[in-house]
Design goal:
- This protein is mostly helical.
- It has 14 helices and no strands.
- The radius of gyration is 19 Å and the shape is globular.
- The protein starts with 13 loop residues before the first helix and ends in an 11-residue tail after the last helix.
Length: 335
Amino acid sequence: MSLFAFGPSRGPRWQLGLQAALGLAVPIAVMTLLGQPLLGYIAASGAFTVLFAGSLPVVERAVMLPFVAAGLVVCAALGVAAAHAPLLISIGIVLIATVSAALAFGFRLGPPGPLFFVLVFGLSATVMRSAPITPAGYVAAIASGCAFSYLVAVSPLLLARVRARHARPLRELFPGPSWDAAARMLVLRVVLVSVAGVIVSLFLDPTRAYWIVGAAVAVVGIASSRRAALQRATHRLLGTIVGAGVYALLALLHPSGLWLAALLGALQFSIELVVVRHYALALALITPLVLLLLGAATGSTGDMSVALERVVDTLAGAALGAASGLLHPRRQPRD
């Protein structure tokens, strides 16, 4: 995973990118036209559903994605419930990270692993503290977003040739639960970085713990090696720094309404095209996307102090994720 070269192509990703872009942009556009943009911003988080099991046939994604969507909704509900209790948020971040990692690695969920469950919990708590919406309204909005994204993901089933393919049994799609040595190590690393990230946040800002832990969990990824941890940490940090600059430029345009929906959709589409080939470049797009979406939901778009905080948080999280990679034994040289 070089900073100066793209990784090998893993096949066309434009369909997944288009699905993710529609899952993000359409709720924002529709609810903006209906005079309820906040509901659109919240529902847009449901687009994370599309990002899972992207390499599987549609008939198998149709079986797997409801479990992902349910997990995201549960995390959002827990984030909403803990929103006004900092201690509960800290405890919740550790528990969400631990449980989602154990399930993701134990049932071989694959990329992007436990990351988005942690982020949805933290984003939900953050938005709920400042947005004029009821807890039930928030959960209903994100559940609607997940449902819409699911329908977008399985829309190819309208074609007979797509429906003709048989899906593997659920037991094969979610093998397990079983945790081999590599899976146990990944779960241990997630537990350690989530606890450490929450502790570090006490010296920065406890309300930002989810971003620190999210950055660390992203560095842990799904690869069990020291080298992968260091490479992902480097990409994560540099990509976030560049992304903060991109956010600063975009924020000067004060995007809102349909323009914001189109901009976020374009960013999401671009992310899915490059994320498997160049992680740092993807982060340069992911960072402004998340900051714009969060800023729109909380009314803080254009606040450059937020971008600086995210760089600091990412530095802390990336360092924790890379350090946790040292738990892996060194590879023995071949004879």
